[in-house]
Amino acid sequence: MAYAEKVYKVRNGRKTSQFTWRCKYKAPPGHKPEWLTESGFPTKKVAEEWGAEQEAAIRAGAWIDPVKLAMPFGKWVEIWKTANRRRPRTQSSRAYLLDKLLLPEWEHKPLKDVNNVFTVQAWATRVSKPQGPHDPATVAQARSLLSSILSGAEDAGYIQTNKLFGRRILVGTDHTPDDEEEVWAQPDEVHAMYQRMGGIHGLMMAADCYLGLRWGELAGLHRDNCLLKREDRVDGRTLVRHVIRIDPKVGALHEDPIELDEEGLAAWHAAEDARLEMCRTKGWKATRKKTPKSRLEVYLGPPKNKYSAREVDVPEWLVKRLGDHIEAWPHEHPFSTPKGTWWLRGNFSSRHLRPAADGRDEIPRKRGYAGRVEWEPVLPGFTMRGARHTHDTWMKEDRVDRALRFATMGWVPKDIEGTYEHVTPEMRRHRLDCLTERWRRGRRSALRSVA
Known about the structure:
Blueprint: E1 3-11, E2 14-26, E3 35-41, H1 44-60, H2 66-69, H3 73-82, H4 88-106, H5 111-114, H6 117-127, H7 136-155, H8 187-197, H9 199-211, H10 215-219, E4 228-234, E5 237-245, E6 252-259, H11 262-281, E7 294-301, E8 311-313, H12 316-328, H13 345-358, H14 384-397, H15 402-409, H16 416-420, H17 425-450
Antiparallel strand pairs: 1-2, 2-3, 4-5, 5-8, 6-7
Helix pairs in contact: 4-7, 8-9, 8-13, 8-17, 9-12, 9-14
């Protein structure tokens, strides 16, 4: 049974008449030491009541060892990471949030002190703009990661409950401004950008607006998964449609930053030394590049989730254009660069999409340069992610059934309706007819604007 004893304060090596109370209570069977203590109580009664609560928690199986509660957050993070392996890109994002936001604040503090809503709220407010250096959206991601880490500590028995779970912690203007919402396009805007970009680049952008694929699914698409023929029966007649297939194993292109280990850094320094030596040999001026922390690994892998491995019906206008392109294209992946290498999201956007959407300045013709004409803005801020937003917005506007919307976008049906609803051939025909009509509208509008 728990009991309390006095603990006298010591000043200048001498015991004073001032004291607090220390509680001693019986540890669980097999625990070393057999008796545990907790100091700093103002009265004997408070100390004994606290000890009784600990012994009651032990009998109920809800007791947490003080050694675990006192574990530094940084030490627990290392344990948590070994049990929560994710894709390299996810691991890299977590490493950034830990290194820049969480560990500088919590690394040496015990888990019991980190697991406090008020403390986390105060930290989030302090490090978020305009008071702090970090964007509120980044701080929100760090808060979410912190909650996941504390949930792991709860599951492992290091804390009793994760007090951050289910709590919404706002930081000032912790909302996405209206002008930062994803920009989506109308059919005439898609057609205008399609004409400006031309060739494979315009086809790639327009195809995504009419298919709704994720960037990795579009960039990693293989020709063997394009325009596969499917047949359905509608009202006793055969409906022939063509689909894009997202392979469950290699259906998406991934761009993952991989943290460089010692071997990787040594290889980078060796390559940089060779480059500098070559420059010196040729008499070129060169300076040493900054040592990178990671390298970008680009590879084909599974799509986002099991529902993302799907077939997407292709509208009539795109079947003809994509078929002609694949027939003339010498590479296995229809939406690769002209050299057959992967398009990276940033490269494609900066070189082709941004000028077509945002506009560009005129460059006069001069000797050795043909010049270029000025482009007025068509849809500033439009991105390839916006193309996916565009497709879902169109389906919603065209009243495409929810079952087909989810199947087309590769979303997870989490509710009971998603369990019982199914896609029918009539739903597919309705969607294809609406997309074909949108293409015709966009083309007519573009022709009128030129006239």
